[in-house]
Fold this sequence. Notes:
This protein is α/β, with parallel strands linked by helices. The chain has helices spanning 12-28, 40-46, 81-94, and strands spanning 2-8, 33-39, 52-56, 71-75.
Amino acid sequence: MIKVLAACGNGMGSSMIIKMKIEEVLKELAVDYEIDHCSVGEGINRAKDYSLIIISEAFVNDFKVDPSKTKVVGLRNLLSTEEIREKVKVALEEL
Length: 95
């Protein structure tokens, strides 16, 4: 099972929407997962507890994690199911 974190700079409401999009993709890919959502600030503090973090491209460099344990995926369009699918597939191959 992978632990996934959806974080957004706009707050808890938008990260919840992103979380739902990510869940849709993970179910489609038949991935066993656990997912949480939070603000970027909170996510930075909790990052080491997750295998996969999905955030806006603008915040990727704020997450200082061990890339062999945690993959940070930056999105241009946080609501694009297609972009989430493409980037999550790549990240899962690297885990």
